[in-house]
Structures
1.
Amino acid sequence: MIAKLTGRLDETGEDWAVIDVNGVGYLVFCSARTLSTLGSVGDTVRVFTQMQVSENDMRLLGFAAGEERDWFRLLTGVQGVGSKVALAILSALSTGELREACSRVDAASVARANGVGPKLAGRIVNELKDKAGAMPGLSGGVGGVAVAAPVGGASADAVSALENLGFKPGVAAQAVARALDELGEDADEGELIRVALKKAAG
């Protein structure tokens, strides 16, 4: 899985950017918020990524921050929310605003996003209201402490491994972050998963 891209911003569009990494141009679909942080063509940029594969399409999604990617994963787990709708929501609301909206079951705030009607907004906040408090973001987080999801390399793979075992994205991110604190930045994926599993289970 491609977890992160660092390269030169080659071109941008309404909801995408092309990032040149050592001569290879990656087409990355992004929210308006992420696009606004990338800077100008020619600048060196970094995005955290998520690959989506379906029967008819394969696309790479890019995010300015790890918490935005975690929210994207959570949103696309809701029936009726595809990548375009999830990016529209993340364009309209910051991760902190989205957490607050879900916690308060505030469907009207989510319905501000393009393509999100009241019925879908209601389904989103109702399904995510119990998960929002555990999600990393710009404010809040687990126990009132902001938790940024580890991204890139072994840490990103460890988060994905815990998610595949059934842990929520926010719980997986927090557990791996705590494992990194204990083991250090040079820990390999196997060590991270082993310690993070203990943290998550505890």
2.
Amino acid sequence: MSKQISLAKQVRRVLVGDHAVAEAVKLARVNVVSAYPITPQTLIVERISEMIERGELKADYVRVESEFAALATVYGAAAGGARAFTATSSHGLFYMYEMLWWAAASRVPLVMAVVTRVVGPPWNIHDEHTDILAIRDSGWIIGMAQNVQEPLT
């Protein structure tokens, strides 16, 4: 008897970095997502909300009115046992500053994507690491992606 080997079709897609992060969130089966849009992380949470809307991700998406509220919401969700995710960038990270320390000191399993961006002046949206380095000693475990593929792998 000949043994037939069936290989699964591999689907390859080209994704921008923000969409790769959104795919990783879906694969992690996150339960609660909360975010306040700030460029350039907005594409992450927009894509996640689309996934939830289409039923691809079974999660609650909480629309909040500030960056502080975004982190406070997922902090509470994680403390209650949910898989929680948020994303931010630059000035938004600084608006979360007080909650950063609460979340880190509590050691709750919470994931936050920080799409690094210049903290002005001058005002721009170009990549720089000043924002993430400013919270380096807050107690968060920080992993930096070298390329667009790494957040998803």
3.
Amino acid sequence: MTTEIRTDSLRPMTNIQIQQTREFVKSLDEVCQTYWDMVNVGDVLSRELHITPELVILYADAVEDYNPWYEGWRMNTWYIPGESPFGGAIVPPLLVSHFVLSVQFDHTKPFAIGSIHTFHDTEIFEPIPVGATVRISAKAIDKFIKRERRYVRHEVTVEDVGSGVLYMRETRDILSL
């Protein structure tokens, strides 16, 4: 019998993927906290995201939203200004929302166990132009108990790094076990 750890032959993995998977599984042995225990009201985390035409295409293809308003890239031409009723190409309205979790959870801390996204409300103020660099900020604004379950509420803002234009705001609740 071999003691070599093998990867799933049905899902080939690169060496980096194998290393990251092993590190993640090993980190589960560390002392883990719940999201409720890790977050304090007033905590703010933020990151910048450059929204490239390639990122927009990957997202639009994944959600099958083939709107010409989002096209800021064309084969053999690469970047183009694109066209929409707002001028150039724009970002699909909820693309940035998918990146909020990468901000909301502090990657420098051990893995938070038992959290479920239970509420989401988005307000969109301006279309985001393809090529923009945005700052996504998540602030813990409340912790509350409802029906004997613990929740953390966040207010999320997405604004342009250069001009400060507020593109969108979200309220999100995370149920913590």
4.
Amino acid sequence: MKGKRTERLIRIASRLLLSPSRPMSLTDTASGFSVSKTLISDDIEMISESLSSEGVGRVVTERGRSGGAYFLPSPSKEYMESKLRELAKLLSVPERLLPGELVYFTDILFEPSWASFLGFAMASLFSDKSPTVVMTSEVKGIPVGFFTAYALGVPLAACRFRNRPSDGPAVGVHFPTGNGDVRTMYLGTRLLDQSSRVLIVDDFMRGGSTASGMFLMAREFGAEVVGVGIFVSSAEPKKKALTGYRSLLELSVDQGVPMLSVSEGV
């Protein structure tokens, strides 16, 4: 179906945006629209330029006879910082401070528009690491972890703190917490293997014990951890159980008011 170019551009853009990081065959696309592959390539270049101008990402084209194209979520630095500053302002109010100098952001994580932005932002920080799976922990880590996995075009592996029969066979690891206790987390045996390149994503890091537990889990499978991404990291304590992580926001508390700021390196 040849149709008008405007319609073709919209349909191609929708296919790319609905399946980020998953290649779309240029040959099949050209055949489906009854046009040349060269014309489809021109269409994709136009779409990529438009998405880049919006600051949300770009289209990557793989050259060659069997080449394809895919949408790579890569928000511009200006766009990402602007959205994160908006979010930091929203969270930096006394009403959101919880006991233990924690901040309430559950409503943000379970709001799809914010969760999808956070996932795409997180994916943009680690796309060059080529992860093959995103690992997170229940419960609040799942929304950001899921959208990160979606943006990267890879599956999500969620660690649980209780093994359920419906989860099938699982591996359990024990890890120390910041207060000296020992917790156990479980992950299904079918979710990772030795070839996995794991990106660890979590919603919050204070001392880093949960992220450290997930690191131990990946090591138990013989998998490689290629990065650790955190939505909000606490400024205190400065010494974490895990180093080399990247966070989107940093939390500090000043006279009973949570103060969130965009982390360096975003």
